[in-house]
Design brief:
By secondary structure, the protein is an alpha+beta fold. It is 30% helix and 21% strand. It contains 8 helices and 9 strands. Strand 2 and strand 3 form a beta hairpin. Helix 4 packs antiparallel against helix 7 and helix 6 packs across helix 7.
Length: 252
């Protein structure tokens, strides 16, 4: 069992250790940017405002009960209203508190929100295929670039899926969440990493339930080519790297 021990420690609570740490926040070092910046020449797209009219199922009990990992998708596109809703449900900002911290649709340790949402869009109505990033403060999409042979690139980064090979390339959109760990490390030091893993679980579960509420299906993907996906998004793989994926599409 010895080979598991140091990894199991990551799963344990270590708050007593944290109380004695001189974190960068306690040292008075500047807090890192709360969101990833972009240039003045970025190509931005407004997303529709979000309200419950997008939902086809407003019964949260049924959404929880019917939720399944969905690996088979129809050719029906996701609408821009639906994509806007899914992005809002997973990282949308709903307000700020007295300390100026953003309140979002998902819980996050210390409101550090270390995640960025990238999208490989394949079949969303009225939007071209390509690679995008969600801007939660503005509730907009930032177009990054077009990707030739998008389905092949999705196959490359999602590797050999054990149950339904190559299912992700049939999804309408592939969510790719990156983490910038220092946003959390600044406040929580080496105890941040467990919190990051917990918090990304909140994000993906919201995607599952939100998808269910619009007649779409989601499948989380933990098997992916780290170097390939980071390279695709232009991430350095150290200060920012992909931590989780999920495919979304209308159910067959």
């Amino acid at each position: 069992m010895g080979k598991y021990d140091r990894y199991r420690d990551l799963l344990k609570s270590d708050f007593s250790k944290f109380k004695t740490m001189a974190t960068d926040a306690k040292k008075g070092l500047p807090q890192p940017p709360k969101v990833k910046l972009y240039g003045a020449d970025a190509e931005l797209f407004d997303l529709p405002s979000v309200d419950e009219s997008t939902l086809t199922n407003k019964n949260i009990y049924v959404c929880i009960k019917e939720r399944r990992s969905t690996r088979f998708y129809s050719d029906q596109p996701i609408s821009l209203d639906e994509l806007s809703y899914l992005l809002w449900a997973t990282q949308g900002i709903t307000g700020t508190n007295k300390a100026g911290l953003t309140l979002r649709t998902v819980p996050c340790s210390g409101a550090t929100h270390s995640f960025e949402s990238y999208l490989l869009i394949r079949n969303v109505a009225n939007i071209r295929q390509g690679v995008y990033r969600y801007l939660p403060v503005e509730h907009k999409l930032l177009f990054m670039f077009q990707q030739e042979e998008l389905e092949n690139k999705i196959d490359e980064i999602t590797l050999d899926q054990p149950f339904v090979p190559n299912f992700a390339n049939k999804a309408a959109v592939l969510f790719l969440w990156s983490t910038t760990p220092y946003r959390s490390e600044w406040k929580y030091d080496i105890t941040a990493h467990k919190k990051i893993l917990i918090d990304i679980g909140h994000v993906c579960q919201n995607l599952y339930l939100a998808s269910e509420s619009i007649g779409a299906g989601t499948c989380a993907i933990g098997i992916y080519d780290q170097a390939s996906v980071d390279r695709l998004l232009g991430l350095d793989g150290h200060e920012e790297f992909v931590i989780y994926l999920a495919a979304v599409g209308k159910k067959q």
